[in-house]
Design goal:
Blueprint (H helix, E strand, L loop, with lengths): L1 H18 L2 H32 L1 H11 L3 H15 L7 H23 L7 H5 L17 E2 L2 E2 L4 H7 L6 H21 L3 H11 L2 H25 L4 H26 L1
Antiparallel strand pairs: 1-2
Helix pairs in contact: 1-2, 1-5, 2-5, 2-11, 3-4, 3-9, 5-11, 8-10, 8-11, 9-10
């Protein structure tokens, strides 16, 4: 993992030297990551938009074939081929997002371990380019809008009420809200789902609709719950990543409708 984390470590240090603050370094690196991944993610976003716009035709197929699952599956695959859609391509952004999060998590912990007294200068310097190497006098500015980026929300809440609680609240609730908006944007209209369920009277349709609805609400809640134990630096990455992803979805929607 350290081999993959090295570019992230150098990027965090490079922008830290530019801005003098680790928080702004995390923000800029996160945006750059999303831009670099855009060529890979954009086709998946286009495919997801097509899948959403294709929902009325898929619903008509469900009405036509009813309980004939084999015939429905064949008709759906034919429709996907006709429209040039790969129904599995929408998984790519999620897989990339998780993979990059794990690498960034490793890189950020490596960067902040020195400030937290858990790592050595030699460990960091082994991953840094010559111009970014640090000495004994180096100290990170880990304060971002009154909060320490190496602390978790639970640790900050234990410290008591104050300005330091504003950032964790914004990042936790904001990340969940941004993910909720992204999920809603990619879902077919609820009225369409309800109409098809009533016409087909199929328990499987009812279950799929319920799972989509639960995923839309549960994933943001899980983000808030899991984020409680992450450092604010990781939450800042997740918040900015979710914000940029939402903007990319909105732009993709506009381009496809034009």
């Amino acid at each position: 993992m350290n081999i993959f984390a090295a570019p992230f470590v150098n990027a965090l240090f490079g922008f830290y030297y530019l801005f003098g603050n680790l928080g702004w370094s995390v923000v800029v690196v996160t945006i750059l990551i999303r831009l670099l991944l855009l060529p890979l993610v954009l086709p998946s976003l286009k495919s997801a938009n097509k899948m959403r716009d294709l929902q009325p035709k898929l619903n008509r197929l469900k009405e036509k074939y009813g309980s004939d699952k084999k015939g429905l599956a064949t008709a759906q695959m034919d429709l996907y081929k006709q429209e040039g859609i790969n129904p599995l391509s929408g998984c790519l952004p999620q897989i990339l997002q998780i993979a990059v999060l794990l690498i960034f998590f490793s890189a950020f912990n490596m960067v902040t371990s020195y400030s937290a007294g858990k790592g050595s200068m030699e460990q960091i310097n082994n991953h840094l380019l010559q111009q970014f190497k640090i000495d004994d006098s180096f100290k990170f500015n880990i304060d971002f809008f009154g909060s320490s980026l190496i602390k978790t929300p639970s640790e900050l809440f234990k410290d008591g009420i104050g300005v330091g609680l504003i950032l964790p609240f914004v990042l936790l609730i904001g990340s969940g809200l941004l993910q909720f908006l992204s999920a809603k944007m990619m879902m077919p209209a609820a009225e369409t789902d309800k109409e098809v369920i009533e016409k087909t009277k199929d328990k499987e349709d009812d279950m799929m609709s319920a799972m989509r609805t639960q995923s839309t609400y549960m994933m943001p809640l899980m983000t808030v719950f899991i984020g409680w134990g992450f450092s604010l630096g990781i939450l800042l990455y997740w918040f900015v990543n979710s914000a940029v992803m939402l903007v990319q979805q909105m732009v993709s929607n506009r381009v496809n409708k034009a």
